[in-house]
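Posted in: Structural Biology > Protein-Ligand Complexes

Title: Requesting predicted complex, iron/sulfur cluster in pocket

I'd be grateful if someone could produce the 3D structure tokens for the following input. Sequence and ligand are given below.
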Amino acid sequence: MNAEIDSILQRAADGGRITPEEALLLYTDAPFHGLGEAADAVRRRRYPDGIVTYLIDRNINYTNVCVTACKFCAFYRAPKHQEGWSHPMEEILHRCGEALDLGATQVMLQGGHHPDYGVEYYETLFSSVKQAYPQLVIHSIGPSEILHMAKVSGVSIEDAILRIKAAGLDSIAGAGAEMLPDRPRKAIAPLKESGARWLEVMATAHRNGLSSTATMMMGTGETNAERIEHIRMIRDVQDLAVANGYADSAVEAADGPGGFRSFIPWTYQPENNHLKGRTQATRIEYLRFVAVSRLFFDNVAHLQSSWLTTGKDVGQLSLHMGVDDLGSIMLEENVISSAGARHRSNLMELISMIRTAGRTPAQRDTLYRHLTVHENPADDPTDERVASHFSSTAMPGGGRKNLPLVEAS
Ligand code: SF4
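-- Reply #1 --
Done. Output follows.
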């Protein structure tokens, strides 16, 4: 192995910080197995119990109407488009109730930037869900929605955050990060806020007691250096959260790690959108990036891979590249599915993926606290209803007249 790469890998595996330049070198030049071993060493030191977590939640979309027209998005419809829709509150609550019946602990309420939806809409949405189902954690929306609602209502970002937090929002999703550096972001989402602004909203939320996740969408034509720049921008903001006492990067705090709790890279899906035909990230690129992320983020507690976009085999392999969490079963997901993500799973399969990778599966809550550790296969859950579904507007033959849980074919 190249002596310089060897030395960086060793330092990172031992818990030392690596620079963005070193991360780029590892990403492009480190041997695949060496990279994975170093990332796995970090994972083992953080989580010596060998537990890999998963979550049961449902992504519920309140509207597909959006004024932001991101080029990679297959989910949205422009205002007045005949396929635009918004769910009434009863439908949203009905879906929350179904999710709870199936063992969900969290809902992710996600939707477009509807021109009429200001802070008041989200206050009603979150308070209605909390009132009906106080046991459900609301991990929802992202900085883009917060900026949009603040603009519609004419209030500051901080006011919008405080009001939706008071209404019941428990955690902010890492949605809308896409690519944070300016060049690739403008190319795929010219009307979206800048990456710096996205991070500013997250920092404001962290300061006001709302922790979040962070994501990245790979594969729309960004360079390797821009991928590393994306995680550099997030790490810098997390450094601030740690320095100011909003986040505990080292261990699980009693109320969960603050700031960015986890990093979740996923791959762009190329169907039904204006970027159709762009190169996607390969599986190897994805796995290498997952490993580099584990080595680079010495201040973010968890690393989640995206089996939904990369497939279950890659999801399982990622557990050997530093990943400690497989995310959600996603009782319902429509946004990424609209762009072509076809992978589906269920509770038993997800548990099996973790166990056959040599790890101990555990259901977690939003803050990564273990709810059930599946030590003994004989005690594994057997509820076949706990499975992924989609009911997309953009899928061939899809329609939204009736939106029951539609089993994927
Ligand atoms: S990704 Fe979000 S903001 Fe962009 S067009 Fe789709 S729904 Fe709108």
